[in-house]
Specification:
The longest helix is centred in the first third of the chain and has 14 residues. This protein is 7% helix and 48% strand. The protein has a 29-stranded mixed beta sheet that branches.
């Protein structure tokens, strides 16, 4: 990576970004004058104006001036070929996309800013709304803010070849209604993605769709990352609540490093709420997952994670009929190493409230956490990774409170069903 990837640098970048107004980037635009799309023949009269709209975009790119847009436009697919600042009306400009299967807006440059737009895709039969086209080069400083996509087949995806990558990608208040495909999908190399108040709101049965996906498993170089997420949410659809077919997932992180999340939520999904595989350096504060059919949180081969104030609420006591028996609240797998969970709550899960099956030398510490109403046991451990549960409470597990199966697993200062404060371990021990 050309950009520094240390944790200290990343957290500093997060703090610096917070000082910038929404949509303000270090772009090469002159602010002494602006353009308006109507200067280039755009009317906004309900007719299809793809050609005129594209001409206005090209002119703004050539002149390096911000361009404003009328309230509603009807158009086909558009491309942004160079640096631009596109600004909709205060009430938001609507791009009403014509029928067909195509990319709504292709972002093919560095220094692109878009704010105050609605992308209306109800007549489209396929194709994502924003394609971040990287080619085989590096792109920088994409900023999307105050964007609403409706009936989308996919909100945004980065595409490229070879060593293509993007740096400093920012999205603020980018949200969806009736999402029919993937939400925010990143699979190319990147450094520093900032997401705030972004949402994926699914409709219908979209098989294998993901709300937020960061997948570096196919990249030529590992350990891409630097993600900051705040107040980002994924909501499943009513039909999916009852379906064994809809495998929508909330948050997916794979082969990624340096992730910071705060107050993010997954709810009512047909698969996992949160899934982490081969992730290093993960911080989550006040995150939650509820009523997700196959489990709430799953960490597999994760190194250096801290979950503070997490909440995992299952389907056991809900009115939903689709209840997979092995859906755990928090599941730790593989070679999880140096994991800390503090002030958590896991309850009403069909499987275990918390399960650990890990084999590694690093410690796993769970403290000040409540485990309740599990369909199996509240705490279930296997593997030789050192595990310590302390200062918490557990009760009403259908098969009992705990089953310590690892030789280095302990429970201390914990309140059980009968109100006693007890300790147990090392495993194997059942209680």
């Amino acid at each position: 990576m050309e950009a520094p990837s240390s944790r200290r640098h990343f957290l500093g970048a997060v703090a610096s970004a917070a000082l910038l107004p929404v949509g303000v980037k270090a772009t090469p635009f002159r602010q002494s004058s602006v353009l308006h799309a109507k200067e280039f023949g755009v009317k906004g009269d309900g007719s299809i104006e793809t050609t005129a709209i594209q001409a206005a975009i090209n002119a703004a790119v050539e002149r390096r001036l911000p361009i404003y847009w009328p309230e509603k436009l009807r158009t086909g697919g558009l491309e942004i070929p160079g640096p631009i600042a596109m600004i909709g009306t205060a009430g938001m400009t609507t791009f009403d996309m014509i029928p067909g299967t195509y990319v709504s807006i292709r972002l093919a440059s560095s220094d692109i800013t878009m704010q105050n737009f609605i992308i209306e895709s109800r007549q489209k039969s396929g194709g994502i709304d924003f394609q971040y086209f990287l080619g085989n080069t590096e792109k920088r400083r994409l900023s999307l803010s105050n964007i609403l996509v409706r009936d989308s087949h996919g909100i945004i995806e980065d595409v490229g070849t070879g060593h293509a990558r993007h740096i400093d990608t920012e999205m603020n208040n980018v949200r969806s209604e009736r999402l029919r495909g993937d939400g925010f999908k990143f699979s190319r190399a990147f450094a520093y993605i900032f997401l705030k108040k972004c949402s994926a709101d699914f409709v219908g049965v979209s098989t294998n769709a993901r709300g937020f996906s960061f997948d570096g498993s196919t990249l030529p170089e590992p350990d891409e990352g630097g993600i900051s997420m705040e107040d980002c949410n994924v909501l499943g659809s009513a039909t999916q609540f009852e379906s064994a077919v809809a495998k929508q997932r909330g948050f997916h992180f794979e082969d990624i490093t340096s992730v910071a999340t705060r107050e993010c939520k997954a709810d009512g999904l047909g698969e996992l709420g949160w899934a982490l595989t081969n992730v290093r350096d993960f911080d989550a504060v006040m995150v939650s997952s509820s009523h997700c059919a196959l489990g709430q949180f799953q960490l597999d081969n994760v190194t250096g994670a801290r979950l503070t104030g997490y909440k995992a609420i299952g389907r056991r006591l809900s009115a939903l009929s689709y209840h997979p028996a092995n859906a755990d609240g928090l599941k730790l797998l593989g070679q999880c190493d140096d994991i800390q969970c503090v002030n958590g709550l896991s309850r009403d899960n069909m499987g275990h409230s918390l399960s650990k099956d890990c084999s590694h030398s690093g410690n796993i510490l769970v403290s000040s956490t409540i485990l309740r109403f599990a369909g199996k046991r509240n705490l279930h451990t296997r593997g030789n990774s050192p595990f310590h549960f302390t200062g918490g409470a557990m009760n009403a597990g259908a098969l009992g409170d705990f089953d310590l199966g690892g030789p280095n697993d302990h429970i201390t200062d914990t309140q059980f069903n009968d109100g006693s404060i007890g300790s147990a371990g090392p495993g194997p021990e059942i209680g």
